[in-house]
Amino acid sequence: MKYLLHTHWTRSPLPLAGILAVGIFLGGCNGASRQASPMPPMVAPQAYTEPEESYANPGSLFSEAKSHYLFDDNRARKVGDIVLVKIVETSKSKSKVDTKSERETSNNLSVSAAFGASTVSPFFVGGGPLSGKVGASPMLSTSSTSDLNATGETKRENYVTATMGARIVQVLPNGIMQVQGAREIKVNDETQYMVVTGLIRQRDIDTDNSILSTQMADSRIDYYGKGVLADKQKSGWLTRLLDIVWPF
Fold first, then answer.
1. pLDDT per position as a tens digit, 168-179
2. Quick check: 83 and 165 in contact, CB under 8 A?
3. What are the pLDDT digits (tens) for 18-46?
4. Residues in Cβ contact with 148 at an 8 Å cutoff, skipping those fewer than 6 apart
5. How far is CA 30 from CA 33, 36, 143, 235, 237, in A?
6. Residue from 182, 191, 193 nearest 231 by CA
7. Exposure of 174 by Cβ count < 10 A (0-12 exposed, 13-18 middle, 19+ buried)?
8. What tens digit of pLDDT does each residue of 193-225 get?
9. Where does the record place a coiled coil (predicted)?
């Protein structure tokens, strides 16, 4: 005689749900992905008109085909030229506020007579020392004191120094030149980006074809990074979500 034993196992959904919950929690505590995602272009490409091609004149010592002349220098002056931007930015700010306020008020309201009859002190009745004495009885007495002492202080200091090239993308009718440049440096899994844009004057460019960032108008300097170090400076997405919805 043969006996067949059939065993049927039923898996409870609770352990699986618990594992998923723990996985989501640990994923929220961790930082974002370490792999740097592709970033859009740092600056929008500026289309500029190429100068018309010039041909050398064999009967002349000078030609428009050459960008340098006998008494000319190497400073950028036309669209497409490169200028060296020396970024030297230093800013310090300090603010201090001290506030002190005090106020004290006192109010007393009494009734000496009501409906033509003098009032008797209600606090001294029933055989007290002033029982039956006629006089004013205080009906309302208030007092308040307000004292405020507040002190606030903020201090900020920034320092950025770098050197990078920028290209002239536009020359305004008054001679002001618009420049923009971008630089990307990638070391291991960390990528750093630096973008500079602004307006410069041709006379402010030094003889070595460089200009200080402090001489630029409407300048914008962006310096940021993306990668492992940048991700470690941010909390996980679940932690940030709890900070938003947590009421306490």
1. 999 998 889 999
2. yes
3. 566 655 555 555 444 444 444 444 445 45
4. 99, 100, 101, 102
5. 9, 16, 56, 7, 8
6. 191
7. exposed
8. 889 999 999 888 898 899 999 899 998 988 888
9. none
CA distances from 110 to 51, 94, 113 (A): 96, 54, 9
Can you list the pairs that 25-28 forms with residues at least 24 positions away whose Cβ atoms lie under 8 Å?
25/238, 27/236, 27/238, 28/236, 28/237, 28/238, 28/239, 28/241
Burial class (CB in 10 A: 0-12, 13-18, 19+), 36: middle
The domains of the chain are located at 82-95+156-245, 97-152
Residue pair 189/103 in contact (Cβ under 8 Å)? The answer is no
Which tops the pLDDT comparison, 3 or 151?
Answer: 151
Amino acid identity of 173?
P
Contacts of 119 (CB under 8 A, 6+ apart): 111, 112, 113, 134, 135, 136, 137
What Rg do the C-alpha atoms of the chain give, in angstroms? 40
Instruction: Please name the amino acid found at residue 71.
Output: F
Two tokens, residue 223: 């310096």
